[in-house]
Amino acid sequence: MKTFLFASLVFLSTAAFADVWTEDYASAVRQAKAEKKELLLFFTGSDWCPWCKKLTGEILSTSYFEREAPKKFVLVKLDFPHDIEQSDELKAQNKDLRKKFKVRGFPTLILADSAEKPYITNGYREQTPEIYLSWLIQSKVFQKLDAFIGAKEYEAALTYIEQLTTKGDLLPDLRQRAFFARAQILDLTGKPKSEIIDALEESVAADPNTSQADAIREIIEQLKNKK
Fold first, then answer.
1. Per the structure, how many domains does the chain have?
2. Paired sense of beta strands 118-122 and 73-79, if any
3. Are 128 and 148 in the same domain?
4. Which domain holds residue 66?
5. Please, which residues have CB within 8 angstroms of residue 140's CB and are 6 or more apart in sequence?
6. What ranges make up the beta strands (E) of the chain?
7. What angle do CA 198, 201, 206 make, to 5 degrees?
8. Count of CB atoms within 10 A of residue 51's CB?
9. Residues 185-206 pLDDT 10s
10. Fewest Cβ atoms closer than 10 Å to its Cβ: which of 1, 58, 108, 143?
11. pLDDT, tens only, 65-114
């Protein structure tokens, strides 16, 4: 009985997951443009990748995520299974999109605008569905920041970062990314090493207990030791 019930729960979870995600990328792009939404692309190995299964089970297939995420995003599942049959067209589409978005591993979530321009990448995080979705929604701020940097409007970018980092609702690792971007801009514009280090230290302080913070600490040490 337990085995039967477990199998039934897995089936129901998979069915619900399938209902709110499309595998038709071209249709998703048209929908995103029509509804003025972003694209949320989920690259997964659904029947073999353990972290993909955790991300799906703990976050993406929860009732909260399925209810709230489609209000902001068009959800696209791009699957690379081992034992699930797919049409040749679907396999070709997914292969082309993996190359287009430079996906190297699974799971990978990419947010892109309706013009198909990606602006941030994510993966599995041990978070509640509410915090995970908040992270995805807040990540949109990096679209504008990337636009400033791409146009070499560095002063505007620094002003925007100041606005972002003084707001109290930006999640810690996004604050970290913003401060790190500030350090990069200071470097690009030839500011003194001390200012760059200060920005990097602010980046670490924003979210200190992560692998990203450890990597930034290494950069700080390299800068301090550089003559």
1. 2
2. unpaired
3. no
4. 2-139
5. 38, 111, 119
6. 38-44, 73-79, 108-112, 118-122
7. 130
8. 14
9. 999 999 999 999 999 999 999 9
10. 1
11. 999 999 999 999 999 999 999 999 999 999 999 999 999 999 999 999 99
